[in-house]
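Below is a filled-in request sheet from our internal design queue. Each sheet records the structural input a requester submitted and the sequence that came back. We keep these sheets so that new team members can see what a complete request looks like end to end.

REQUESTER: design group, bay 2
PRIORITY: normal
MODE: inverse folding
CHAIN LENGTH: 381
BACKBONE (tokenized):
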């Protein structure tokens, strides 16, 4: 019963793929890849090269060095599988503080609750209620290496509590540690013929770490190690009107499942061989291990395009599109979003429309974020 429950939970939280997509890459703790804030999710789930905000911890912590306020707090709520259940959700809280004009530190917590589940060994047995959950605690430090470029390092503790005590086995949560390395570039404001502009670029290698193990001596599962990189441009038409356009690419630095024994199928024996791949070996192999070569490697790269229009830093409209190969998960969706800022408080909303035949767990879901910007202002010209 316990093993069956774990399988069901993983099927809920893992990316939705069809049975024929045998080489779609799956990992443990996929909740780390869910866009946790409404601003990023309103622009097609991107954020590595967008302008700074309080939720930069997930996307690119190097952006905190370009914060315009002394400190800030951000909290967000994301319902999950809302059309099926009403008690599965992702909660996220962030805090950042600028030490000076060149450096900042930040902390965040992400909690993914899977609601209440009834456990029974037989149909007539009284049910035992359990509440599986996963969470992560993050910390980061960012530093400007020049007036236009910053880097950051981050650490993450991950806990996945998807096992439950039945009196015969240990039910401790599976834990892991990971690190992030990120960089962010923002050019000075440049005068063009009809408008001013500013270039942006960023990268983030996140969740670098070993594997996570649910059973002592059992199978080890890869963390969702990611490489994100992207760029963007701000069209500054005047003091009140700014249009920001951004694109982002993402590659899982995890080995591709493949037929190791040459029997024409990916089976249990291949899985054992797959799990024996070391973490560092897997990161480097992930750039060239797809069985169909370079064409399949390209299919493992997702891309997103998003735009944000700001009026007087008080009202924001957003839209975006996210694309993933049909053979690697088939996540394809449009997003819309809006933001409203009054003094030091900002509210953001976003909505997702799936364009894939595979149903998205966040389809037709309204997501919320609330940000408080506090303290003195910093000017990053």
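RETURNED SEQUENCE:
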């Amino acid at each position: 019963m316990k093993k069956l429950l774990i399988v069901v939970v993983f099927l809920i939280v893992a990316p939705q793929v069809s049975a024929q997509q045998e080489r779609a890459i799956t990992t443990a703790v996929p909740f780390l890849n869910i866009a946790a804030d409404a601003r990023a999710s309103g622009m097609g789930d991107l954020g590595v090269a967008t302008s700074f905000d309080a939720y930069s911890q997930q996307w690119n912590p190097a952006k905190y060095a370009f914060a315009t306020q002394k400190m800030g707090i951000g909290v967000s709520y994301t319902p999950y599988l809302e059309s099926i259940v009403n008690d599965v959700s992702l909660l996220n809280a962030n805090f950042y503080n600028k030490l000076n004009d060149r450096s900042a530190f930040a902390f965040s917590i992400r909690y993914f609750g899977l609601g209440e589940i009834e456990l029974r060994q037989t149909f007539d047995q009284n049910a035992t209620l359990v509440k599986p959950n996963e969470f992560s605690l993050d910390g980061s430090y960012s530093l400007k290496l020049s007036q236009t470029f910053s880097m950051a390092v981050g650490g993450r503790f991950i806990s996945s509590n998807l096992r439950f005590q039945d009196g015969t086995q240990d039910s401790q949560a599976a834990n892991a540690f990971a690190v992030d390395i990120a960089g962010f570039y923002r050019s000075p404001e440049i005068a063009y013929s009809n408008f001013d502009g500013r270039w942006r670029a960023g990268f983030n290698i996140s969740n670098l770490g070993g594997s996570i193990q649910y059973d002592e001596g059992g199978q080890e599962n890869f963390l969702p190690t990611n490489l994100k990189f992207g760029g963007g441009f701000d069209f500054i038409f005047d003091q009140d009107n700014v249009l920001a356009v951004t694109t982002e690419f993402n590659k899982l630095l995890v080995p591709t499942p493949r037929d190791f024994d040459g029997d024409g199928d990916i089976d249990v024996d291949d899985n054992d061989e797959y799990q024996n791949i070391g973490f560092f070996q897997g990161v480097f192999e992930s750039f060239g291990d797809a069985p169909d070569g370079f064409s399949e490697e390209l299919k493992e790269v997702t891309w997103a395009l998003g735009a944000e229009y700001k009026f007087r830093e008080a009202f924001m409209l957003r839209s975006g599109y996210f694309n993933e190969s049909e053979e690697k998960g088939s996540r394809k969706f449009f997003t819309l979003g809006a933001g409203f800022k009054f003094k030091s408080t900002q509210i953001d909303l976003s909505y997702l429309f799936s364009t894939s035949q595979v149903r998205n767990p966040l389809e037709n879901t309204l997501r919320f974020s609330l940000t408080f910007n506090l303290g003195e202002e910093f000017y990053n010209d």
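SHEET NOTES:
- The longest helix spans residues 2-13.
- Confidence is low (pLDDT under 50) at residues 1-21.
FILED BY: M.R.
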